[in-house]
Automatic annotation (TrEMBL):
This is Nitronate monooxygenase domain-containing protein. Pfam families: NMO. The lineage of its organism: Eukaryota, Fungi, Dikarya, Ascomycota, Pezizomycotina. InterPro entries: Aldolase_TIM, NMO. SUPFAM superfamilies: Inosine monophosphate dehydrogenase (IMPDH). Keywords: Flavoprotein, FMN, Oxidoreductase. GO terms for molecular function: nitronate monooxygenase activity. The keyword Repeat does not apply.
Length: 425
């Protein structure tokens, strides 16, 4: 076998028999493959040469993957547990949901051994106020602090396309959340690089999590000089904003990304459609180091959500039929400017039905605004306003305290994994 190296985008790649990731500084237990030893743990990028860097090239390398490669996520799980010592396995993350994931929800998730994120606020300034509240709740809760004790055991999400980096950096410098979660850049990786660099300068202890929804976005991120600490792989079922037209479920997307980013040392978290322990077990099975849930926590006692909205999340079933990705509700609410590559998943109601039937936008807008004036009646099948939620709504049947949700989902996932492991004997 002949191997040649060629540097691409700052990352060396290896060309040869079309199927290998070669470590030049392997330590610890190694796997022999075609006469080359491969360490069984993820390695620092500097110590790793990459076979190829485009999705097409990666397709040619798919027969590389033996069981040890596929189980790299086990080592990642250990690494995440060490970085976030208050968390328990399997890792359940409370996703940052704009306005709806407030400090009460984030801290309740972390207190139960999950990892709670505060969502972006109504205004950029709202994040600092939420972090101040979270700090007080953390101090009262007795959650063990991160590693050195120097970060808050929660995270915070930022929406890049309309976020304010100066205000975000100032909040992160002051409160040092354990992680920030970046999403929705207007211009792809260059925007992510700018945010990552600045936030790392502001709080070096704070880890960078990046939510992506395609293989290309994942490759751009791991090749970047400002590589994230964690990639959240968002599948098409996810509630809220996600890929507008090129999303797929994480059951296929995540393992493809795991193969393609193998050796980068970046753990993957699965998101989209998980609402119970069955989804968690499935995500771990395809290589996730943990799972992020959003919609499930809309039906938590701590969510900052109106009752009419929450009732609808509990009522709705059959997410493929009764949820849709559309910009319609953004526009009815007066929100414009989202980059074309993203659109939100919402539960459908009268506005959608009438839009499909051809009702002009100005009539829909008038009826929408009247409905909003009626409070909780604005939601429900006869309602008219945005009910952003994921395709997993049919799995959500009650409102519960966030801590109970985390513990229940974790327990169910652990039981499923234990029972499934019995199948191999
Ligand atoms: C109501 C709602 C609001 C959301 N807002 C954000 C957000 O502001 N930033 C973000 O990165 N993700 C946001 N998300 C997406 C989540 O990060 C996550 O990908 C998603 O909730 C996972 O899928 P699930 O809803 O099926 O659990 C939101 C999701 C929902 C349901």
């Amino acid at each position: 076998m002949r191997l040649t190296t060629k540097s691409q985008g700052g990352w060396p790649s290896v060309r040869g028999n079309g199927r290998y990731v070669l470590s030049t500084r392997a330590r610890g237990p190694c796997l022999r493959f075609h006469g080359i030893s491969q360490p069984l743990r993820p390695r620092p990028v500097a110590a790793t040469r990459y076979l190829s860097t485009s999705p097409a090239q990666y397709r040619n390398t798919s027969n590389l993957h033996n069981m040890q490669d596929k189980l790299q996520s086990l080592a990642f799980r250990e690494r995440l547990a060490a970085a976030y010592p208050w968390t328990k396995a399997p890792l359940i993350v409370g996703a940052p949901m704009r306005v709806m994931s407030g400090p009460e929800l984030a801290v309740a998730v972390s207190r139960a051994g999950g990892f709670g994120f505060i969502g972006p606020g109504e205004t950029p300034e709202a994040t600092a106020a939420d972090l101040e509240t979270a700090k007080g709740l953390v101090e009262a809760s007795g959650i063990p602090q991160s590693g050195s004790g120097s970060t808050l055991p929660i995270g915070v999400g930022f929406q890049l396309w309309n976020g304010n980096l100066d205000i975000a950096a100032s909040a992160v410098r002051r409160y040092r959340p354990a992680a920030v979660w970046l999403f929705a850049p207007q211009n792809g990786q260059p925007d992510v690089d700018r945010w990552t660099t600045r936030l790392r300068e502001a709080a070096p202890q704070t880890k960078i999590w990046l939510q992506i929804g395609t293989l290309q976005e994942a490759l751009d991120a791991v090749r970047s000089a400002s590589r994230p600490n964690v990639l959240v792989v968002q599948g098409a079922e996810a509630g809220g904003h996600g890929r507008a037209s090129d999303g797929i479920g994480f059951i296929t997307l995540l393992p493809e990304i795991a193969d393609a980013t193998q050796g980068s040392g970046v753990p993957l978290i699965a998101a989209g459609g998980v609402a119970d322990g069955r989804g968690v077990a499935a995500a771990l099975g395809v290589g996730a180091a943990g799972v992020a849930m959003g919609t499930r926590f809309l039906a938590s006692q701590e969510a900052r959500i109106k009752k009419g909205y929450q009732d609808e999340v509990v009522r709705a079933t059959d997410g493929g039929v009764n949820t849709v990705r559309t910009q319609l509700y953004n526009h009815l609410r007066g929100t414009f400017g989202w980059p074309d590559q993203f659109s939100p998943r919402t539960i459908i109601n009268r506005s959608w039905v009438e839009h499909q039937a051809g009702t002009p936008m100005e009539d829909l807008k008038k009826r929408h605004d009247e409905a909003v004036g009626k409070g909780d009646a604005a939601w429900g099948p006869e309602g008219r306003t945005a009910t952003y939620a994921g395709a997993g709504v049919g799995l959500i049947r009650s409102v519960a305290p966030a801590g109970e949700i985390v513990e229940g989902v974790r327990k169910e996932a652990s039981e499923i994994i234990q029972r499934l492991s019995g199948l191999s004997h």
